[in-house]
Amino acid sequence: MIHSSQLPMFEYNLRIIPTDPVYSQIVNMKSEFIKYFGPGLFSRSIPFATVASFCMAPKHEDKFVDQLNNTLTHRSFPVSVKRVSGFDNIYMVMVDLATNALLDAQATRLKNLFRQELRIPSKHSSVVDRFHISIGQ
After folding, report:
1. One-character DSSP codes across the chain
2. What is the mean pLDDT of each run of 10 residues along the chain (137 residues)?
3. Second label for 6, Cα 20 to 30 Å away, from 30, 31, 42, 71?
């Protein structure tokens, strides 16, 4: 079991970084955001989409990486922009990514990895249902 209340816990994030042309599209959107609204949270970061967040003890990192390598079937998959949207309650501008069968399958494998293989409780892990890249806040 990777999660233990007796060990110090750290938060981890699994992220995907899109390749071109999506990467360049997002960089251009971030530049436009800064031009009109000034620099904000996320506006200067490299484009990435968080796929999962979880907590575990650092001593289990090697086991996690081994399990992840054995679980995920694809190292790359197509990513495309679906639409520009936002979260009104926190004034976030973001780009929603179009989902596809490969991305959905990887998300399902991650959920199973956290719950079944690594036994990380759901209160300490999440896999996103809405893949997006933040432009600025």
Report:
1. ----TTS--EEEEEEE---TTHHHHHHHHHHHHHHHH-S-TTTTSPP-EEEEEEEE-GGGHHHHHHHHHHH---S----EEEEEEEEGGGTEEEEEEEP-HHHHHHHHHHHHIIIIIS---GGGEEE-SS-EEEEE-
2. 67 91 92 88 88 88 88 78 73 79 86 86 87 83
3. 71
Alpha carbons 59 and 8: distance in angstroms, whole number? 9
Measured in residues, the chain has a length of: 137
133's CB contacts (< 8 A; 6+ apart) are: 18, 26, 47, 48, 49, 94, 95, 97
In angstroms, the CA 56 to CA 75 distance is 23
